[in-house]
């Protein structure tokens, strides 16, 4: 099923000749020098057309740097006037919208913590009023496609047609190398639902560290996403927010130069479906490994317990019962007896080894 949105195509309102559109700039505006130096560094990179900076920072816990507020909007006006870049800020309430509009900000974005709340979206839309300023809508923190779609549809019904969805990854209960799990199947499904809605990708918040960013940028292009938002700071190590994931303008330029722009596959349906399935496998493998790790920790705990009570490691009766029980469960799940046995033997072997290590460890 595809749903229709009334979307103004990117090329009608953005001065871009080639995709992807690149947005760069610091996580937060910190000082006039930091903003201007970063902006001049970025303005030299031909692919970058838009400068971002957080002015009001939604922090998970109070007490951290919460943004410079209104005075930062003046620095962004200077960026626009002196570099020709378009400027964008995050807005989370009607006051932010009013101030951003008063300072001639070109594009607004709604952050992951705000998108979850339909009241907030409604109020932001009402505050924007009749201006047809472009709005970027990040995905909500939780992997919930409907909430993301809801915010997009709500703004579209209020008359906003210059819309862009921004994929910034999702909170995920398992540990992962990413700060926010990419779960590519969700933006892919969004693209399938709304084929004319541009989707940008924010590798900085997906990755949480600089090293993973180039691979995620390439992945975004390979999945035919339309733009990238990369947090860029003149001195990332000194950044007041998100310092592990920000890159220098020179690094950004290098990452962009290495991107491979493939031609469209011509068979989107196939590649998207494959990607969706692979993404599902990645998630399941991650859970599987996490569970195995947790299981081994419990095995070691049992080892300590046996050691304290001078009980032998191998308890054959228990092992036989356990094997029988797991084979029955496995067969109900459509797995073969041979496969379950092989798996259990391997898990058991590792468990025994862990317990032997516990027994031999000198804990005096
Ligand atoms: C940001 O872009 O700086 C930001 C706060 O992002 P998100 O809302 O995606 O966490
Ligand atoms: Mn950030």
The count of domains is: 2
CATH topology of the largest domain: TIM Barrel
At the first level of CATH, the class of the largest domain is Alpha Beta
Strand proportion: 5-15%
Globally, the shape reads: elongated
Give a structural overview.
By secondary structure, this protein is of the alpha/beta class. It folds into two domains: 10-257, Alpha-Beta Barrel (TIM Barrel); 270-363, Chorismate Mutase Domain, subunit A (Up-down Bundle). It has 14 helices and eight strands. The chain has helices at 10-13, 32-43, 71-83, 94-102, 112-115, 118-128, 145-157, 185-193, 203-207, 213-222, 249-258, 268-308, 316-332, 337-360, and strands spanning 21-25, 48-52, 86-90, 107-110, 135-138, 163-167, 199-201, 227-231. It has an eight-stranded parallel barrel with strand order 1-2-3-4-5-6-7-8, surrounded by five helices. Helix 12 (268-308) packs across helix 14. It is elongated and about 75 Å long. The relative contact order is 0.10. It binds phosphoenolpyruvate (PEP) and manganese (II) ion. Manganese (II) ion binds at residues 27, 231, 241-242.
Question: Could you give the topology of this structure?
Answer:
Blueprint: H1 10-13, E1 21-25, H2 32-43, E2 48-52, H3 71-83, E3 86-90, H4 94-102, E4 107-110, H5 112-115, H6 118-128, E5 135-138, H7 145-157, E6 163-167, H8 185-193, E7 199-201, H9 203-207, H10 213-222, E8 227-231, H11 249-258, H12 268-308, H13 316-332, H14 337-360
Parallel strand pairs: 1-2, 1-8, 2-3, 3-4, 4-5, 5-6, 6-7, 7-8
């Amino acid at each position: 099923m595809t749903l229709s949105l009334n979307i103004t195509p990117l090329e009608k309102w953005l001065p871009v000749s080639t995709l992807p559109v690149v947005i760069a700039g610091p996580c937060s505006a910190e000082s006039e020098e930091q903003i201007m130096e970063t902006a001049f560094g970025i303005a030299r990179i031909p692919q970058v057309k838009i400068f971002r900076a957080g002015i009001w920072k939604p922090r998970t816990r109070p007490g951290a740097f919460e943004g410079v507020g209104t005075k930062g909007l003046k620095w962004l006006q200077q960026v626009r006037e002196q570099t020709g870049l378009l400027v964008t800020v995050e807005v989370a309430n009607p006051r932010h919208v009013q101030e951003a509009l008063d300072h001639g900000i070109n594009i607004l974005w709604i952050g992951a913590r705000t998108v979850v709340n339909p009241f907030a979206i409604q109020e932001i839309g009402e505050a924007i009023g009749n201006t047809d300023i472009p709005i970027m809508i990040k995905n909500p923190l939780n992997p919930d496609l409907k909430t993301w779609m809801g915010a997009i549809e709500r703004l579209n019904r209020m008359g906003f047609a210059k819309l862009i969805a921004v994929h910034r990854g999702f909170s995920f209960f398992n540990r992962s190398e990413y700060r926010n799990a990419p779960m590519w199947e969700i933006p892919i499904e969004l693209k399938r639902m709304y084929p004319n809605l541009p989707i940008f990708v924010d590798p900085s918040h997906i990755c949480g560290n600089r090293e993973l960013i180039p691979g995620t940028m390439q992945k975004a292009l390979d999945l035919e996403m339309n733009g990238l938002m990369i947090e860029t700071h003149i001195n990332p190590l000194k950044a007041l927010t998100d310092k592990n994931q920000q890159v220098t303008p020179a690094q950004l330029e290098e990452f962009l130069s290495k991107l491979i722009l493939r031609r469209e596959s011509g068979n989107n349906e196939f590649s998207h479906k494959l990607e969706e399935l692979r993404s599902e496998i990645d998630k399941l493998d991650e859970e599987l490994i996490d569970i195995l790790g947790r299981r081994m920790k419990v095995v070691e705990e049992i080892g300590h317990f046996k050691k304290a009570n001078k009980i032998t490691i191998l308890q054959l009766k228990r092992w036989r019962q356990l094997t029988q029980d797991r084979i029955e469960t496995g067969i109900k799940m459509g797995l073969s007896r041979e496969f379950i046995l092989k798996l259990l033997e391997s898990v058991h072997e590792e468990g025994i080894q862990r317990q032997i290590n516990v027994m031999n460890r000198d804990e005096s």
